[in-house]
């Protein structure tokens, strides 16, 4: 990260009109905004889309500060807030598609994204075609006259494939297709979405933006071309964010740089250590050559984080259970991005329900690991105990 980016983590969203003389923007809770004159009411009505107090669902100064901060960090023209990452994805897509449209969805997308396509979009008459994350120029063959959105997620969920987003975006833009990116892994700062051709960058801010596993939050930052439509059409779906949660996200941004740096350093070292384990077939960490699409990570990303996967040489649920039940610092949980380490197991057969085209070409159990902020020696010792239990169960 450049020195300028580090400074931005401290200053973003701290405009004096939001802080009012204190360090942090205060929590402003409001549903009704009252006006003393007709002129004040008219002014608020005219400017309600531009960080002006109008009604609680449009936001308070706490929300405006977070929106401004996210726009500063990722670029773009504006940021819409949502009550979780899944809401950010679904409401953003719904803001741009109509019955009869077609979207291209990366096959390694977040599972709730796929469920949304298979259930809700299908019910609304929107067709989804899944594509291999490493399709490259082959994406041209999948574009239809009614294709409206190209959705990317890089690295991919669970199996960590890194996409050539600039190449895909360039092809999509030849056909006036909107390029959306689930940019959660990079926390919006280790991959510059708008410099690489993305039109709308979406995050589960629940993860690294908040960073403490205690808030559900989603963000979508749009380019100038698409900001007005995203802002107004997502607003019509009625979802909004608590000012208290917005405040905690702002606080998380202040330490985002140092947290990501530590997560990234520890995860890379642990990934290299795991690659030498006799139980491990290969490691899927974007920073290692063994990860599909590593060359795009090396070219386009400015840093890593704590999330990666390893594939074991065998698939033995009993032995995997022994490992998971033995480790102490690695808890099992359906999230990541907090200060704590996590681990989840995926058997090869589970991908049959999650993938259409890009079923992973391996036979062993996949362990998705999030490396937290604990001492790395303690994490290694914890996994050593887990592997001892794993090997005992195999014997």
TrEMBL record:
The keyword Amino-acid biosynthesis applies. GO terms for molecular function: cysteine-S-conjugate beta-lyase activity; pyridoxal phosphate binding. Its EC number is 4.4.1.13. It catalyses: L,L-cystathionine + H2O = L-homocysteine + pyruvate + NH4(+); an S-substituted L-cysteine + H2O = a thiol + pyruvate + NH4(+). One of its GO terms (cellular component) is cytoplasm. Belongs to the trans-sulfuration enzymes family. This is cysteine-S-conjugate beta-lyase. It comes from Vibrio eleionomae.
């Amino acid at each position: 990260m450049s020195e300028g980016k580090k400074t931005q983590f401290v200053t973003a969203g701290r405009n004096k009109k939001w802080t009012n003389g204190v360090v942090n923007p205060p929590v402003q809770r409001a549903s009704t905004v009252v006006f003393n004159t007709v002129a004040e009411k008219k002014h608020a009505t005219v400017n309600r889309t531009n960080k002006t107090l109008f009604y609680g669902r449009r936001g308070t100064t706490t929300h405006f500060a977070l929106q401004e901060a996210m726009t500063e960090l990722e670029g773009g023209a504006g940021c819409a807030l949502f009550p979780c990452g899944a809401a950010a994805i679904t409401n953003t897509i719904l803001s741009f598609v109509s019955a009869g449209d077609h979207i291209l969805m990366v096959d390694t997308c977040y599972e709730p994204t796929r469920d949304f396509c298979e259930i809700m979009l299908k019910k609304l008459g929107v067709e989804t075609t899944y594509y291999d994350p490493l399709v490259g120029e082959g994406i041209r063959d999948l574009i239809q006259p009614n294709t409206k959105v190209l959705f990317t997620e890089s690295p991919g969920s669970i199996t960590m494939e890194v996409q050539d987003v600039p190449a895909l975006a360039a092809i999509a833009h030849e056909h006036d297709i909107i390029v959306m990116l689930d940019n959660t892994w990079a926390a919006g700062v280790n991959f510059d979405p708008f410099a690489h051709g993305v039109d709308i960058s979406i995050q589960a801010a629940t993860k690294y933006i908040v960073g403490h596993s205690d808030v559900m939050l989603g963000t979508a930052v749009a380019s100038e071309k698409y900001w007005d439509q995203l802002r107004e059409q997502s607003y019509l779906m009625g979802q909004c964010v608590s000012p208290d949660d917005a405040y905690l996200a702002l606080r998380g941004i202040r330490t985002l740089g140092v947290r990501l740096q530590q997560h990234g350093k520890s995860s890379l070292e642990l990934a290299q250590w795991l690659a030498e384990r006799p139980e491990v077939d290969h490691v899927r960490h974007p920073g290692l050559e063994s990860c599909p699409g590593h060359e795009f990570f090396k070219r386009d990303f400015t840093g890593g984080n704590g999330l990666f996967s390893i594939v074991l040489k065998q698939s033995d649920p009993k032995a995997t259970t022994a490992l998971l039940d033995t480790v102490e610092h690695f808890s099992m949980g359906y999230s990541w991005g907090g200060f704590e380490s996590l681990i989840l197991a995926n058997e090869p057969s589970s991908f049959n329900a999650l993938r259409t085209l890009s079923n992973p070409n391996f036979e062993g159990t996949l362990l998705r690991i999030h490396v937290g902020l604990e001492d790395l020696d303690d994490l290694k010792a914890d996994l050593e105990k887990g592997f001892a239990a794993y090997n005992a169960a195999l014997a």
